[in-house]
Design a protein that fits this description.
This protein is of the alpha+beta class and 154 residues long. It has one domain. Helix content is 40%, strand content 23%. It has 6 helices and 6 strands, in the order αβαββαβββααα. The chain has a 6-stranded antiparallel sheet, sandwiched between helices. A hairpin with a 5-residue loop joins strand 4 and strand 5. The longest helix has 14 residues. It is globular. The model has no long low-confidence stretch (mean pLDDT 84).
Length: 154
């Protein structure tokens, strides 16, 4: 359902994870929370930016990730899968090429900063913001959210 070589590689070697699912296209406030989460949990302050194409993955190092770097990544996403990954913790944010969702995976401290509101609010926000996504019903959007929370790389 969510087949992506880049996403699969991000989960390689993980035995467990915690995730947050956000609707496609982050606003500047979401970008602020995400940049802050990367800064707090990343002693090296270096984040990898990975773009996934059919021909492979393009990787670059972002030495000091700012809110505007995250906002720029969000605006660039759509033509390819895109991920921002903390070098030292492997916490990451993934933008789906099909423009359905943004997935944030990390330790509880990272996620608490990246999404500073309860899971129930995040689920409702995803459904509400995704109305019109291929004509999917609220139930179908809720099922997509739940699937991503349980097993996003299948």
């Amino acid at each position: 359902m969510f087949e992506s070589p880049l996403l699969r590689s991000l989960f390689s070697g993980r035995t467990s994870f915690e995730a947050v699912v956000l609707p496609w296209s982050l606003n500047i406030v979401d970008c602020h929370f995400l940049a802050t989460a990367f800064a707090r949990g990343n002693s090296a302050q270096e984040v990898l930016r990975m773009e996934g194409y059919e021909s492979g993955v393009l990787t670059e190092i972002v030495p000091s990730l700012s809110v505007f770097d995250v906002y720029g990544a969000d605006r660039d996403a759509g033509d390819f899968d895109l991920a921002l990954i903390a070098q030292d913790s492997a916490d990451f944010c993934f933008w789906d090429q099909e423009e359905r969702f943004v997935l944030i995976v990390g330790n509880p401290q990272f996620l608490a900063v990246a999404r500073p509101y309860p899971k129930e609010i995040a689920r409702h926000r995803f459904i509400e913001a995704s109305w019109g996504l291929g004509g999917m019903s609220d139930d179908a959007l809720g099922a997509m959210y739940d699937s991503l929370m349980l097993n996003p790389y299948l």
